[in-house]
Amino acid sequence: MVLKNSKYTIAFLGWMAFVTFSSLVSFSDTDAADIDIPNLDKVVHFSFYFGAAFLAVLFIRERTKGGMELRKAVLFAVVGAIIYGIIIEVLQYSFTADRHGDILDALANSVGAILGSLAVKSLFSKERWLKWEN
């Protein structure tokens, strides 16, 4: 029963572990390093943080049982994801041998976080069938 009531918590924490691992581990010795699609890196950053912010809003809803106002949950998710993205970029710059921090990556992270939060917010808008409060 606990797992059923914690599905977004598990999804969010799992997603953040995946993002952290993927951001800080080197992939230079893999075939993935040979893929050369223009701006694919920025699309990946956008997608990682779109998912992070989207799941963060649902995580907040689950943990507060809908008690936190939707607007506040969205704000926390966006600010938290943006700060986390900046921290990851600093860690890449400071502590990895073949990864580097990039301001454009941080920008892609931020845009993804903003749009991910707005996407989930739209699901709970007055015109939709989903209700924020439990």
TrEMBL record:
Question: Which key words tag this protein in UniProt?
Answer: Membrane, Transmembrane, Transmembrane helix
Superkingdom of origin organism: Bacteria
Q: Where is the VanZ-like domain?
A: 18-121
TM spans (from-to): 43-61, 73-94
Q: Which Pfam families match?
A: VanZ (PF04892)
Please give the organism: Zobellia amurskyensis
Under the heading InterPro entries, the entry gives: VanZ-like
- Its name, as the record gives it, is VanZ family protein
